[in-house]
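Justification of computing resources. Each target in the renewal requires a structure prediction run like the one illustrated here; the chain below, 286 residues long, is used simply to show the kind of job we budget for.
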Amino acid sequence: MAKSKKKYTPNHTRYSEKTEVKAKKHLGQHFLKDENIAKKIGDTLTLDRYLNVIEIGPGMGVLTKYILQKDLDVIAMDLDRESIEYLNTSFCLEYHEIIKGNTKFKVIEADFLKFDLSTLFPEEQFAITGNFPYNISTQIVFKTLENKDRIPEFTGMFQKEVAQRICEKAGSKTYGILSVLTQAFYDAEYLFTVPPDVFNPPPKVESGVLRLIRKKEYGLPCDEKLLYKVVKTAFGQRRKTLRNSLKTFQLTEETKALDYLSKRPEQLSVEEFIELTLIIQKSTNE
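Resulting structure tokens:
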């Protein structure tokens, strides 16, 4: 039976007016203070194929309270001890009507990038969401890819440029390593843009919210590590054609003759990179 959740009605109190937690520059913190945007981010979670979620960088819980209203087991993970103390005290008191009776809300003080995710929700699928610190957002995506077997959905807020790069298609200058490797396993969708003035302190750039949904058939026909190597090598010399940038793979004459090797890496689709990797893999094994 689905859990009954208390509905929270935002009073639009601005977080700058209750500074229990100070944003720390070295942690890349910019606390979201707009309730409507927090709710929109919470609503990016589809609850499809999972009953658990990890929120990374909850800060003062502006997004957390909206996630808690959904039928999910929630873990809020933050490296900032001050945020952890706030979530365990003031946050629980202020939103006790939402949290009351919910034994499946847990706050963990930890570095997501170093944390062993196998210890959370054992053998169960879980989503990831959050207002991600800009300075580690790309690393968060790569760790998600490493754990893709357990993460069917990923939503959250990045620096706009990074969010666009993740979702970009072939043919664009912003299309790159992150685009190809993410989209090899997930369908990526850029959802909406967030202005700087809804944060405390405001960042110097706009933010963007995206959603990644794991493909139903996300297993690759090629070697995954080889795909990573091919993609990183190709974009490491993105001004060169693939025929020149991939010389280190000792391509056969037949492979060198492929039409798309005369292209630059940003001109190749995700599917073509996978196909090329498979060709290289087969020629290496011969």
